[in-house]
Amino acid sequence: MLADGDTVLRPIKLRDQRAWREVNQRNREWLRRWEATIPPPAPGGPVTHRPTYRQMVRHLRAEAHAGRMLPFIIEYQGRLAGQLTVAGITWGSMCSGHVGYWIDQAVAGRGVMPTAVALAVDHCFRVVGLHRIEVCIRPENLPSRRVVEKLGFRQEGLRPRYLHIDGAWRDHLVYALTVEELSEGLLERWHRTRPGASQK
Questions:
Q1: pTM of structure
Q2: Do the beta carbons of residue 9 and residue 73 sit within 8 Å?
């Protein structure tokens, strides 16, 4: 478990199903524009269906066990508030991964997501041993872009038609950080630079 104040990251569990469904369904319109979708199958190709919650958790756990993923639930003030996954973890000469996330609209704007991302990045750099973290975001997703910009992620460019989102292949901006860019922890940087920090 990773925690800072009211924000907690912990492994996703099968028993989170009811709370996860409630938050996800209540935020359906808020999330729909940014959620990954499954592209239509090629002629003669296999048909892929959206997994059930239990299938999703089992897949995330298998990937985590194989060292390719870190799947977290975000809790805020003791309640499930979203999900954050460090995926695509690659070792060898790369040592990198990418972060994806979503948050309950009811707690958006309270610093929960920047705190969660900072907790995850510090864990990846200081404990897991990764060298680079990417976050890929649709150009239109200004709230998500603000999360990484607040944390000092560097924008590297555009990946055209990078992911299938909301029914079509969508361009994504790439943001990244390497361990050399953090002389302090990312959470420490966030506490120092977040709005109101100078008054504390």
A1: 0.92
A2: yes
